[in-house]
Amino acid sequence: MKYICLGYMEEKKWDGMSDSKRQTLIDECFAYDDVLRKNGHFVGGEALQRVRNATTLRWKNGKVSISDGPFAETKEQLGGILVLEASDLNHAIQLMSKHPGVRLGGCFEIRPTEDIGLADRPSEKAPARR
Predict the structure, then answer these.
(1) Are 40 and 2 in contact, with CB atoms under 8 Å apart?
(2) ∠ CA(39), CA(41), CA(43), 5° rounding?
(3) How, if at all, do strands 42-47 and 76-85 pair?
(4) Which of 21, 76, 103, 124 could form a disulfide with 17 if both were Cys (CB 3.0 to 4.6 A apart)?
(5) What does the pLDDT read at residue 72?
(6) Across all residues in the chain, what is the average pLDDT?
(7) Distance CA 54, CA 73 (A)
(8) CB atoms near residue 108 (< 10 Å)
(9) Tally of CA atoms within 13 A in the half-sphere of 101 that contains its CB
(10) DSSP classification of residue 114
(11) Sign of the alpha-carbon dihedral angle for 49, 50, 53, 54
(12) DSSP one-letter string for 30-82
């Protein structure tokens, strides 16, 4: 089963680290991602740019409203995502609890993916059969 792991962090805490400490943590995270990849658990993942580069869309007063920044005013912001293959939630928790990113003082939110039948929908490139 696939799980989406959302990694949250405090940018101020990150900014307060020395360059060498940040680089060490990044290297440890990449090394653990390689372990997950080697064992068939790493499906994909991406780090995100700073929250100041975020744009949020909302439906407001019958139209789309666009605002700069993240949708929530909290200390912890979404810093990246990891797509994980695990046998069940307990397995996903076990794998992610070893991830060095947990030590940033933020958190990882782990959610199972939902199969909503997108694979069964005809693509835009291929016409639907009748």
Answers:
(1) no
(2) 125
(3) antiparallel
(4) 21
(5) 58
(6) 84
(7) 13
(8) 21
(9) 25
(10) -
(11) positive
(12) HHHHHHHHHTT-EEEEEE---GGG-EEEEEETTEEEEEES-SS--SEEEEEEE
Distance CA 54, CA 42 (A): 26
Q: How far apart are CA 101 and CA 94, in angstroms?
A: 14
Residue 3, token pair as written in the block: 């799980």
Report whether 10 contacts 75 (CB < 8 A).
yes
- Collapse the DSSP code of 12 into the 3-class scheme (helix H, G, I; strand E, B; otherwise coil) and give the result: helix
Per residue in 81-108, pLDDT tens? Answer: 999 999 999 999 999 999 988 877 678 8
User: Which residue shows structure tokens 């005809």?
Assistant: 122
Domains within the chain, CATH numbers bracketed = 2-114 (3.30.70.1060)
pLDDT digits (tens, 9 = 90+) for 10-30: 888 888 999 999 999 999 999
Amino acid at 64: V
Report the Cα 49 to chain-centroid distance in Å.
Answer: 12
